[in-house]
Amino acid sequence: MKIKCAFFDFDDTIAHGDTIHKLLIYTFKKHPLSSWRYIKTAFFGLGHLLKLVPMEKVKTTILFPLDLFTQEELKVFYEEKVVPSYYPHMVEEMKKRKEEGCHVFLVTASSEAYMHFNKLPIDVLMGTKTKIIDGEYSSKIIGKNCKDANKCDRINEYLKEHDFEIDYDHSYGYSDSDHDIPMLSMVKNRYRVSKKDGALSPFIPKEQ
């Protein structure tokens, strides 16, 4: 069955700023003794730049806060630090597409461990998955980091599972970044969200 879709990135698209950066700052204030973990994260990040460490390993070290907070604490983080950074007009854009009959996807590299607390008008949340241990999310990534072409893999898996096909001409994509060109290429109507103020404009790759 063909369906109209609307694909939304999250960081600097729906919400201003980088969510994991917000979480790291929040963690440092709540758990200052965890500062040594930031050194480990930087070390693995350097290894990734040198192509010695896979992205998923780097992401696991970055997501160490998930090992420190309970679900209730992560909910408080999301509500206090992430929700206030929403662009109101982008939330309205989501509502508009939903009301037009689009199947609304929120597709993000941010972790589902805290992103599932969102109350946005979406049908599907696709974020980076991490292992649940004793009822709490951990930093251990399951599968791939939900970024770049991996977003398309997740979307295509969902479409296949539900026997859906994208109505290309009547579907939409929103992002602040050229990293999302693979996802945006799945739809005809593409919009860039300005990192400066969240303003919408037609999506034109920056290298052109």
From TrEMBL:
Assigned protein family: Belongs to the HAD-like hydrolase superfamily. SerB family.
Q: Which InterPro entries match?
A: HAD-like_SerB (IPR050582), HAD-like_sf (IPR036412), HAD_hydro_SerB1 (IPR006385), HAD_sf (IPR023214)
What species is this protein from?
Answer: Kandleria vitulina DSM 20405
Q: Which domain of life is it from?
A: Bacteria
Query: What is the protein named?
Result: Uncharacterized protein
Q: Which Pfam families match?
A: HAD
Q: What phylogenetic lineage does the species belong to?
A: Bacteria, Bacillati, Bacillota, Erysipelotrichia, Erysipelotrichales
Keywords from the UniProt entry: Hydrolase, Magnesium, Metal-binding
User: Does Hydrolase appear among the keywords?
Assistant: yes
* Keyword Metal-binding found: yes
Recorded GO molecular functions are:
hydrolase activity; metal ion binding
